[in-house]
Amino acid sequence: MSARAHPVDGDVSPTTDGGDLPIKSLSYRHKVGVPPKPNMFHDFMYTFKETFFHDDPLRHFKDQPKSKQFMLGLQSVFPVFDWGRNYTLKKFRGDLIAGLTIASLCIPQDIGYAKLANLDPKYGLYSSFVPPLVYACMGSSRDIAIGPVAVVSLLLGTLLRAEIDPNTNPEEYLRLAFTATFFAGLTEAALGLFRLGFLIDFLSHAAVVGFMGGAAITIALQQLKGFLGIKKFTKKTDIIAVLDSVFSSAHHGWNWQTILIGASFLTFLLISKFIGKKSKKLFWIPAIAPLLSVIISTFFVYITRADKQGVQIVKHLDDGINPSSFHKIYFSGDYLVKGIRIGVVAGMVALTEAVAIGRTFAAMKDYQIDGNKEMVALGVMNVIGSMTSCYVATGSFSRSAVNFMAGCQTAVSNIIMSIVVCLTLLFLTPLFKYTPNAILAAIIINAVIPLIDIQAVILIFKVDKLDFIACMGAFFGVIFVSVEIGLLIAVSISFAKILLQVTRPRTAVLGNIPRTSVYRNIQQYPEATMIPGILTIRVDSAIYFSNSNYVRERIQRWLLEEEEKVKAASLPRIQFLIIEMSPVTDIDTSGIHALEDLYKSLQKRDIQLILANPGPLVIGKLHLSHFADMLGHDNIFLTVADAVESCCPKLSDEV
């Protein structure tokens, strides 16, 4: 509907009407447009589409022949059929170098991460063989490197250990791990399939920073067992229990040879990382440093037989590729519910990390990834992985960064890495027999250090104190209690912040910027002046049942405070209350009732309520509820300036 206007006395215009005398023109004040009466079905479909299909995923299928639609559908599920058509030898060279580089990094990391999950080292390698192959066919990110990661491994190990002791019941523990992985994949795939990816956004960036930092410290502390050669170590993960276990065994449990190996190679890894940061061309040095450390330390232990002196080693590592594990997944019994619970938690954390990594590198290379497709790919990958002796895999930030810097072009780099891991499983596993646990601890400590993002914490503190509380809550929850409690705190604080912002929206008093018709927050613009007899307030949120009473009470408090100031300064009393409605995107029946109550309250005090620029949804509902009739259509204006202009003559008349 076009905007309507009615005449108001205006300026003299030189326009003539067939003669020499000028005639007085009329300036027009536009009324707020009222949209057509909404169709309930169309309104529902629009909301449904914007909630679940805001990216219009079927737009490419419009006006296409059946054969083309089939191909587009295939490419949508398996992006490899899309980018694979334009794959060249030049791209393969980049992927080959990147794949070999991340393989050299992932092999020693996988062995260590499996230990974090209280699993045999071979399961870490299994999880870097099958899942990357599946992701390469279904994933849309060109840069993400797939495999086990430290945080998810620790989380999974902690949750599984709470149900089953891996030392007394290793077979049941393994079965529960596969069950949790299956349901983690099912959760991820379901979120993507039903377009519910927005749910992971409820975990705020600040909460993730705090959780990751706390998890990194917890992981590093857990590595003190292998780093110091301690045989009897606490099963708890909180910092107090771990440090107590470390220092109580200082006189008889530490092994100096182990400490020497761990400290020497940790120093080497940190120096190599420093060199890689100084020069991007030398990115390969920190990438191959872990594998080089494993080779050198293993050779050193073998020739000196340091294992006879108390240096703990990996010992036997089974060769061969992934056996089937479908028959080991619990589909009934008590462990089924436990597997679902653990899987959902681990899957959500893995999903959050992978999508964040994918978006980061996609932005750096200026291409788009479909979050929901990514979830389906990661989910299918873990479901298939659970059936092939893998535990939860996701995107690894350290490996993805190396993959990016090594010049990867497509997901083929994951395939190259997977092939190298496969060859390692088939032919090279006996070589890891004498690998000291200390070197694996050093590799993991080196890998998790970047997860402690101090600069991000400082920025969060400067920008938003509530975010900082969420960050610290998650951080201290992880290091002082447990990983799952830290995660629960992170989610709880994130939800609390959302509820706080929804239930306590900001409001502001507006003033006129001198020599303009613009009205802005007087706290932001101290030069803005208030019009005597008029109070203008802006509500910076939709008005719903959750905040309607607060909005009404806050407006009344603004009015009371302003009346006290006016009385003290002997200025004209407030006769008009203008509410700037531009930021109010929607309103429900509770919000309308709050406006009605405010209007009636103001009427008793001989103060006129005026609305400025309500949006289409808001003005439509105000008309349907007849509040616009109650208020008076002449008291609804397009702009604050129009409202003030209308009020000023009335103020002059009373004076």
UniProtKB/TrEMBL annotation:
It holds the Pfam family Sulfate_transp. Residues 524-647 form the STAS domain. The chain crosses the membrane at residues 144-162, 174-194, 206-224, 254-271, 283-303, 340-363, 375-394, 414-432, 439-461, 473-496. Residues 1-20 are annotated as: Disordered. The keyword Transmembrane helix applies. It comes from the Eukaryota. It is a multi-pass membrane protein. One of its GO terms (cellular component) is membrane. Keywords: Membrane, Sulfate transport, Symport, Transmembrane, Transmembrane helix, Transport. One of its GO terms (molecular function) is symporter activity. The keyword Zinc does not apply. It is found in: Membrane. PROSITE patterns: SLC26A (PS01130), STAS (PS50801). PANTHER family: SULFATE TRANSPORTER (PTHR11814). This is STAS domain-containing protein.
